[in-house]
Amino acid sequence: MSDLQPVPEDWSSALVVVAHPDDMEYGGAGAIARWTAQGKNITYLLACRGENGIDSMDPVVCAPVRVEEQIASCAAVGVTVVEFLDYPDGTIEYGLPLRRDIAAAIRRHRPEFVITGNYRETWPSGGLNMADHIAVGRAAVDAVRDAGNRWIFPELGLEKWEGVKYVAAASSPLSTHAVDITDSFDASVASLRAHKAYLEALSGDMADPEPFLRSMAEAVGKRFGGVLATSFELLEL
């Protein structure tokens, strides 16, 4: 019996807010591909350019490579608008500047759904999460409320936006909902493969997109009717 509920799909626009290039591709991109195929409009906002994510590549060289790969990755799942905030990769701090920048994006794009990454201390496997993910995810959740209050960050000069229906965190150890990605699984693999330089620098299971993503999707699917699926923690506003 399934213990995960379907993610609601009664919305037409979403903003994805993550820390680094590749964050949404390790699990959540299959849902993005499903939703863009339904005609939903989805925009990505990344807190940094991932410049410190490849040990063998100088950050100055790495940043534009990872930006280009993220844009290609998004194109593989039907997303054409990708924005970067230029926070320092690896040392992103939760705080008012980050909340302000995310709230500004929410007010500009006016999404009904905000999607972020896992901001809990651990992954579903039990492994430790990293500080950037935790900071950005927490700030994204808080920025949704900030964006709806005209008296918070008035200096932005942007009209408040209270239209977010749902907030969801991908790959959370406290997942409550899931999305059937059977038909969009191949697109999710193509999206992760677009991070070519990053994958070439990795070792182990995470360096091989198809089997890694399939194992994740099958594991979630065991809790969601036996289909290929990806999980989210759906938060109440």
UniProtKB/TrEMBL annotation:
GO terms for biological process: glycoside metabolic process. Keywords: Zinc. InterPro entries: GlcNAc_PI_deacetylase-related (IPR003737), LmbE-like_dom_sf (IPR024078). Signal peptide: none annotated. Gene3D superfamilies: LmbE-like. It comes from the Bacteria. GO terms for molecular function: hydrolase activity, acting on carbon-nitrogen (but not peptide) bonds, in linear amides. This is N-acetylglucosaminyl deacetylase, LmbE family. It comes from Lentzea albida.
